[in-house]
Write a structure and sequence with these properties.
The protein has twelve helices and 14 strands. By secondary structure, the protein is α/β, with parallel strands linked by helices. The chain folds into two domains: about 60 residues, DNA polymerase, domain 1, CATH 1.10.150.530; about 290 residues, Aldolase class I (TIM Barrel). The longest helix is centred in the middle third of the chain and has 14 residues. The structure holds S-adenosyl-L-homocysteine.
Length: about 375
C-alpha cells in the first residue's frame, strides 16, 4: 500500500509540541518523505528508525551518528511521542500487562506472554471495540476511537524497552498478535503501516510468519491484506453455523459464513505450502462446544489450509457464559482431529492479572452509549 503523502513544513523555527511531526508511527516510506521534506537525504530514515525502534531512544540528542546540526533541526521540527505507562502488572506465570494512556480519557492494554521458545506481544488497535462480540470483555466496553500508528507502534516500543531493548537474536518479543483491544481490520489506515514497521529490518525486523492480524471477519479488509501486506491471518470464527455466530460475533450478519469462508480461501490462494489461516474458536460451556458443532466445523473447514486454536473461554464481570469443561474441550478436539484438522488448545495465561484473551478492558470513554442498549445475553442464548 502507498503511504499517504504527507506535506511537512520544513521551517526550522521552534514549533510547539502539537506542531511537531511525530516520528514513532512512520513507516520507512513516510519517514523518507519526511527527511526529503526537511532537505535531508532519505537514508537518514533508516538511521533514525534504528535509534527509535532498536535502541528505544526518544531523544534526538542521543542519536550520535547524526551530525549536531541535524539533531538540533530534528528536535525543532519533530518529536518521538510515547504514551504514559499508567500501570504495569506481572502475573505469577511471567505474563506482563501494561496499561498505556493514549489521551486524557482513554487507556489501552498490551500484554507480553513469555513461553519457552518465544515471547508474544498482544497489541491493541482501537480504544474499545465497536463489534459487540458477546463473549468478549472489550466488546462490552463500548467504542471510543481508532488508535493511530504511533499509538499502536508505541505498545511494541514500550514493551521492548521494558524488556531491555536486546539485539534481535536475543530479543524477548519474537511474535506480535493484533489480538488486544479492538478490530484491527476496521482500522487498516493505522494497522497496516504499523505492521510494516514491525516487519522492517530498520525497526523490529519480524518475519511475516510472526506478525498476525486477528479479525472477527471484515471481509473486504481480508482481501486488502492479500493485496497490500504479506502477513499472517487469524480468524475469530467461534461458531460453525450462522445461527450461533450471529449471536457470538454479530458482524456475521453483515459477512456471514458463506461470504467469510471464501475470503479465507482467497487469502491462502497462491501462497506456498505453509500458507494457512489460524482459526480461533472460543470454547463456551453448552453453547458452541457440542458434538454436532465439532462435526459442523469439520465440514466447514474441510479443504481450507488452516490450524484450529481452541480457546477456553475466560470469564469477565457480568457475563453468563461459562468455560467449557476440560472433558468437553478434549472431546471436541478429538472430533476435529478425526476429521483431519490440525488442532491446538490455547493455554490460558495471565488470568490472575486479567490479562487473558478477551479480558482486556483498559479505560474506554464509550461514545456508543453501549450500556444503554446492552442486549440481554440470556434471552438470546439458543438451545441446540
Ligand atoms: N477483533 C479481533 C481481535 C481482538 S479479539 C478479533 O476478533 O479477532 C482476539 C481474540 O480474543 C479473539 O479471537 C477471541 O478468541 C479472544 N477472546 C475474546 N474474548 C475472549 C474470552 N472471553 N475468552 C477467551 N478468548 C477470548
Amino acid at each position: 500500500m502507498q503511504s499517504p503523502i504527507v506535506e511537512f513544513d520544513s521551517a526550522t523555527d521552534d514549533k510547539t509540541e502539537q506542531q511537531k511531526t511525530d516520528l514513532l508511527g512512520m513507516d520507512r516510506q513516510a519517514m523518507e518523505a519526511f527527511f526529503k521534506s526537511i532537505g535531508e537525504k532519505p537514508f537518514r530514515a533508516g538511521q533514525v528508525m534504528k535509534w527509535i525502534h532498536q535502541f528505544g531512544i526518544s531523544d534526538f540528542s542521543e542519536m550520535t551518528n547524526l551530525g549536531k546540526g541535524l539533531r538540533e533541526k530534528l528536535s525543532q521540527v519533530a518529536q518521538i511521542r510515547t504514551p504514559k505507562i499508567v500501570a504495569e502488572q506481572v502475573s505469577s506465570d511471567g505474563t506482563i500487562k501494561w496499561l498505556l494512556e493514549v489521551d486524557n480519557q482513554n487507556s489501552v492494554e498490551t500484554v507480553y506472554i513469555p513461553e519457552k521458545n518465544r515471547g508474544t506481544l498482544c497489541i491493541s488497535s482501537q480504544v474499545g471495540c465497536a463489534l459487540e462480540c458477546t463473549f468478549c470483555s472489550t466488546g462490552q466496553q463500548g467504542f471510543n476511537r481508532n488508535l493511530e500508528n504511533w499509538e499502536i507502534v508505541a505498545q511494541m516500543w514500550v514493551a521492548n524497552k521494558a524488556l531491555g531493548c536486546k539485539p534481535k537474536e536475543e530479543r524477548r518479543i519474537t511474535n506480535i498478535v493484533f489480538m488486544g483491544m479492538g478490530e484491527p481490520l476496521l482500522n487498516v489506515t493505522h494497522t497496516f503501516p504499523t505492521a510494516r514497521i514491525l516487519m522492517d529490518d530498520f525497526a523490529y525486523g519480524l518475519s511475516k510468519r510472526r506478525v498476525t492480524i486477528s479479525t472477527a471477519g471484515v471481509v473486504p479488509a481480508i482481501d486488502r491484506i492479500k493485496q497490500e501486506l504479506d502477513i499472517s491471518l487469524a480468524i475469530s470464527l467461534h461458531a460453525p453455523n450462522n445461527k450461533l455466530r450471529d449471536i457470538l460475533v454479530p458482524i456475521n450478519k453483515k459477512y456471514p459464513l458463506e461470504v467469510l469462508i471464501p475470503s479465507l480461501y482467497r487469502f491462502v490462494e497462491g501462497g506456498n505450502s505453509k500458507k494457512h489461516v489460524t482459526v480461533e474458536y472460543v470454547m463456551i460451556d453448552k453453547f458452541n462446544d457440542r458434538t454436532e458443532h465439532a462435526q459442523q466445523l469439520v465440514k466447514l473447514l474441510a479443504d481450507l489450509p488452516c490450524k484450529v486454536n481452541l480457546i477456553p473461554f475466560n470469564p469477565f464481570p457480568n457475563t453468563d457464559y461459562k468455560r467449557s469443561s476440560n472433558n468437553a474441550i478434549h472431546r471436541f478436539r478429538a472430533i476435529l482431529e478425526q476429521g483431519g484438522l490440525n488442532v491446538t488448545v490455547r493455554k490460558t495465561r495471565g488470568d490472575d492479572i486479567d490479562a487473558a484473551c478477551g479480558q482486556l478492558a483498559g479505560k474506554v470513554s464509550d461514545r456508543t452509549k453501549r450500556t444503554l442498549h446492552r442486549v440481554d445475553f440470556k434471552a438470546k442464548q439458543i438451545k441446540s
